[in-house]
Write a structure and sequence with these properties.
The protein is an alpha+beta fold. 26% of the residues lie in helices and 28% in strands. The protein is built from 20 helices and 38 strands. Strands 5-6-4-14-15-16-13-17 form an eight-stranded mixed beta sheet. The protein has a six-stranded mixed beta sheet with strand order 8-2-1-12-19-18, with helices on both faces. Helix 3 packs across helix 6, helix 3 packs across helix 9 and helix 12 crosses helix 17.
């Protein structure tokens, strides 16, 4: 028995990190570097096991969001400095990378990525085939339409980085123990209390699950949801090739679904096939840490063929090694980070979708900061474990979905791309009826929602009849008709996927007053839009609170946000408060009537009064709708009058049928989907949380000062931070953007330029059919020389453009909603 195997484990610690791969050692290292003492890291085998040891070791800096770009950039900087700090070699080399394009559409995607890189501070250069050949002389380049060069990318030896992180952690007091497997996570009520190993229990305050494909099964034993599953990933290693050396750049050829990494004088050729094979094990074996699956030459054959085309020298050389290593993938191809909603003190960093080496340094730092502060240090919603619900943790669904998400690495990043596998997880009471009406469905957080409706003679589908492009997609005119119905007549939207959280109890009102920035101590039947803020004043969520009676409230939130919002509410309710919280999402079908003739349509199916005096905006009433009763909310969310009908699920279909029957041609009534809803809300400058609103923005930056009740007794979470911000002003602001040219389409994440310099970026975009051009919301900073201010007009001065895939398009930037400007003749119709 080895010395490691004989080593005793402590009986208690402050933090236990489970997993000694590159992610677990990064978390332990950053906890210790931040001053956390009494940290224990447990590895069931030896360090760098699991996915780490067989990873290709490529470190790219550019990601789709600012937060994730910072993650990778920090990883690269950390890996470059670790050797001098610890004396352990990491193999870091900043060799740069080439991203190749074979088609014009791929060039457009790379141009969009290059534009975003400018915002995020990552150097990316557009080059042609001749420059590609100059940097990698053995590559075939005659079929290239273009390429980009990212000089800051690099590569490491993953086992070396792991050893260096472990050494850095040890020097700061972390106890790193190999050869100890965790059998279970222990909890008391909702609180983690320790881990059970083969050598006894270690009591602790918190646990960090960083054990890759083993994370899901350990979490399940504790009742926590971490949706990931192992998938085969293949690469081969060639024999030495003349002309290959270790300083050549990394190569990614996404149109061929392959990558090339020089390793000495040999080449690693890997593939991310459109469809991969899940590893269908009920339980990942405990002893698999340094094992591989059998070679699968049949599955790898398309990648090998493409690799030999791109690098002809591979046709003439022997392949010395085939690596088929399972890696954990998630349902949406983003990794999983943060505290689980089900178990307090149980944190996770796992499911890195074959990008664990590039992300581990930054992700480990962020999780350590989250564990110390008790809340995310910045906007991490795209990777937050709470974006998933328990139904997305089903093993059958995961195997279907992860076989597809592997291919997302290199497939075209089309706007609005819909995944094809694992669909119909959650459907509304209207689903089958809307399908017959021509609905083309999309999936958000596992919920099927109508995106648009096909007219007679057009078959609705996701693939292949949706023709993806960066311009106007083939549903454009259909969504335009739905948009116009909401502006001129009445449109019916199925919003049944929205979240509903019931908050009840003697202290419900006092608790919500503490949690909400707005005043929610209103009369029964009234509702208030409000932010739930963090201590920095940032928007943790943007919700509607409806008061039903003295001690009963409903918090209405967005699709896919229920788990996160419930967890946040529960964690922040004052200790000892007499409050019960329940998830009632799905109990009702929700039908929205939007448009100037919505009152007329609703009046045809109810006896309830709908006039402004007896049913004012911002209130809710129980009304009859045909044979059913509905909770009707008087709303005005997209610049048009409307109602939301919340109908008990068993009666929702009959209610919808009654509305359709009453909505004859005279009302210009029609079904409408979420694509139309997006263009309507952007014309009305209504921001959406998760896109335009994040935990990094306060209501002051978002233009939502009207949702802050500054003087309400007792204050609210985040008020002190908001008061300080109000006293000095803000340096960035959410604004509306309208292109001058009616041709280009905005999708979000495009750079906004003031007087020729980048001033910010769009956060969401769509084509505004009322204004006759693309519209967007975006965040911009102040002009040079202008200090913090609350004067919103200071943010809009200048000559404005938007970078649309490399083309600078003139734009108007305003604090006014484009819909309002259109109504006064200031915008194009």
């Amino acid at each position: 028995m080895s010395a490691a195997a004989e080593r005793a484990v402590p009986t208690a610690a402050r933090v236990v990190v489970i997993g000694g791969g590159i992610v677990g050692t990064s978390v332990a290292y950053h906890l210790a570097r931040a001053g956390v003492r009494d940290v224990v890291l447990l590895e069931q085998g030896r360090l760098a096991g699991g996915t780490t040891w067989h990873a290709a070791g490529m470190v790219g800096r550019l990601r789709a969001s600012n937060a994730m770009t910072r993650v990778n950039r920090y990883s690269a900087e950390l890996y470059a400095s670790l050797e001098s700090e610890t004396g352990v070699a990491t193999g870091w080399k900043e060799v740069g990378s080439l991203m190749l394009a074979r088609t014009g559409e791929r060039v457009t995607q790379l141009e969009r990525a290059r534009a975003v890189a400018e915002i995020f501070g990552v150097e990316v250069k557009r080059i042609d085939g001749a420059e590609v050949a100059g940097r990698w002389p053995l590559l075939r380049t005659d079929d290239l339409a273009g390429a980009v060069w990212v000089p800051g990318d690099g590569k490491v030896e993953p086992e070396g980085v792991t050893a260096a992180l472990a050494e850095g952690a040890r020097r700061r007091g972390v106890e790193v123990i190999e050869g100890v497997r965790v059998d279970a996570i222990e909890r008391r009520g909702r609180q983690v209390t320790g881990v059970r190993t083969g050598r006894g229990v270690i009591e602790c305050e918190s646990v960090a699950l960083c054990c890759g494909m083993w994370s899901r099964q350990l979490a399940l034993g504790a009742g926590a949801c971490i949706p990931l599953a192992p998938v085969e990933h293949h690469y081969v290693v060639s024999e030495p090739i003349d002309g290959v050396h270790d300083d050549l750049p990394l190569v990614r050829d996404p149109d061929a679904c392959i990558y090339l990494r020089p390793r000495g004088d040999a080449v690693v050729l890997g593939a991310f096939q459109r469809r991969s094979r899940p590893w269908p094990v009920e339980r990942v074996p405990d002893d698999f840490s340094f094992r591989l699956l059998e070679p699968d030459w049949e599955q790898f054959e398309p990648g090998l063929r493409e690799g030999r085309w791109r690098l002809p020298a591979l046709e003439r050389c022997r392949l010395e090694r085939f690596v088929n290593g399972p890696e954990s993938f998630t349902p949406d191809n983003e990794f999983i980070l943060g505290e689980t909603a089900e178990v307090d003190g149980l944190f996770v960093a796992a499911g890195f979708n074959s990008a664990g080496i590039a992300c581990a340094g930054g992700a480990g730092k962020l999780l350590a900061e989250w564990m110390i502060a008790g809340e995310p240090p910045e906007d991490l919603w795209s990777v937050d474990v709470r974006r998933f619900a328990s139904f997305q943790n089903d093993a059958g669904f995961l195997r279907q979905r992860v076989s597809e998400t592997v291919g997302l690495h290199y497939l075209m990043a089309w706007p609005n791309r819909e995944l094809e596998t694992g669909r119909d997880l959650r459907t509304s009471p209207l689903y089958e009826r809307l399908k017959r009406a021509g609905a083309c469905f999309g999936s958000k957080a596992g919920h099927e929602r109508p995106n648009w409706f096909a007219p007679p003679g057009v078959e609705p589908s996701v693939e292949p009849l949706v023709e993806y492009t960066f311009g106007r997609q083939n549903w454009h005119e259909h969504a335009a008709a739905e948009h116009r119905a909401a502006r001129d007549g009445v449109a019916l939207f199925d919003l049944s996927s929205l979240g509903r959280i019931a908050v009840r109890g003697a202290d419900a009102c006092a608790a919500l007053q503490h949690l909400c920035a707005n005043d929610v101590d209103v009369e029964p039947g009234a509702m208030a839009r409000t932010g739930l803020l963090n201590e920095r004043g940032g928007l943790e969520s943007d919700v509607i609170v409806l008061r039903r009676d003295a001690d009963r409230f409903e918090v209405l939130t967005g699709t896919g946000r229920t788990v996160r919002d419930m967890h946040w509410i529960r964690r922040h309710i004052p200790h000892g408060a007499r409050v019960d919280i329940d998830d009632e999402s799905g109990s009702c079908g929700v039908i929205a009537l939007v448009g100037p003739r919505s009152r007329e349509l609703l009046g045809r199916v109810t006896h309830a009064p709908l006039d402004d005096d007896r049913f004012p905006r911002g209130t809710a009433r129980e009304i009859d709708v045909g044979p059913a009763m509905a909770l009707a909310l008087r709303v005005d969310a997209v610049g048009e009058p409307g109602w939301e009908l919340h109908v008990p699920a068993p009666h929702a279909l009959a209610t919808y049928e009654r509305l359709v029957e009453a909505g004859d041609e005279s009302l210009r009534a029609r079904d409408a989907g979420h694509y139309a809803l997006a263009s309507l809300r952007l014309e009305a400058a209504q921001p959406a949380w998760g896109a335009d609103l994040t935990p990094d923005e306060t209501p002051l930056e978002a233009g939502l000062s009207g949702t802050i009740a500054w003087e309400k007794p007792g204050g609210f979470i985040g008020r002190d931070a908001l008061e300080r911000r109000r006293a000095v002003g803000v340096t960035r602001r959410l604004v509306s953007v309208v292109l001058e040219d009616p041709g280009p389409v905005l999708w979000g994440n495009e750079p906004i330029l003031r007087d020729g310099e980048v001033a910010g970026r769009t956060t969401s975009g769509a084509y505004g059919h009322t204004v006759g051009a693309s519209v967007a919301l975006g965040v911009v900073g102040l002009p040079r020389g202008v200090g913090p201010t609350l004067d919103g007009d200071a943010f809009t001065i200048g000559r404005w453009e938007v970078n649309v895939a490399g083309e600078r398009c003139a734009a108007r930037v305003s604090l006014r909603a484009p819909r309002e400007a259109a109504a006064t003749g200031e915008a194009r119709r």
